[in-house]
Every structure is written in C-alpha cells, then in structure tokens.
Amino acid sequence: MASQITFKEDELGKKWDMCIYNSIVKMGGGLAVGTIGSLLFFKRRAWPILLGSSFGLGVAYSNCEQDIKRTLSPKA
User: Fold this and answer.
1) pLDDT tens-digit readout, 40-65
2) Residue 59 burial (CB < 10 Å; 0-12/13-18/19+)?
3) Secondary structure element (H or E) that encloses residue 68, with its range
4) In whole angstroms, what is the distance from residue 38 CA to residue 32 CA?
5) What one-character-per-residue DSSP string does 8-58 give?
6) What SS3 class is residue 3?
7) What is the DSSP letter of 4?
8) What does the alpha-carbon distance between residue 18 and residue 59 come to, in Å, rounded to a whole number?
9) Confidence bin at 72 (pLDDT 50/70/90)
C-alpha cells in the first residue's frame, strides 16, 4: 500500500477554512451575548453588542494565529 502524502499547502488550507468557520461561530456567540446584555442591562445601547462581537473575533484570531504558527513551524 502506498502511504498517503499530505502537503503543507493542503494542511494550511484546512486550517484557514477552520479559522474562518471558528471566527463566524465565535463572533456570532459574542453578538448574541452582547445583544442579550444590551436588551436586559444596558437600555438597548449598541456598545455591548460591539464589545461582545469584538471579544469573540479576538478569541478566534488568537486561536487561529496559534494554530497556523504550529502548522508553519518546522518539526524537529
């Protein structure tokens, strides 16, 4: 049987796809939490919605950055 070869480009493409998906999910979660906080506690202001979305996007960016650095680093 031939061994299956995986290229760095394919692996990196999968990581980018996962990063985009992860960003959408985390930003949506932050948006939902911000909207609920805005409706319940902050008299329908816009800043909790923006803050929640920003936190979600920041966490997704941090996770994505670590994941891609791990992929691109040479293995010893």
Assistant:
1) 998 888 999 999 999 999 999 999 99
2) middle
3) helix 47-72
4) 10
5) HHHHHHHHHHHHHHHHHHHHHHHHHHHHHHHHHTSTT-SHHHHHHHHHHHH
6) coil
7) P
8) 14
9) confident
| Residue type (1 letter), 39 | L
Q: What are the pLDDT digits (tens) for 2-46?
A: 578 877 788 888 999 999 999 999 999 999 999 999 999 988 889
Query: Residue 76 — pLDDT band, cuts 50, 70, 90?
Result: low
Q: Which amino acid is at 74?
A: P
Residue 49 and residue 63: Cα distance in Å, rounded?
Answer: 22
Q: Do 61 and 23 meet the contact criterion of CB atoms below 8 Å apart?
A: yes
Gap between the Cα atoms of 71 and 24, Å rounded: 21
**pLDDT at site 32:** 95
Q: Which two tokens stand for residue 44?
A: 């329908």
Tell me how crowded residue 56 is: count the other CB atoms within 10 A of its CB: 23
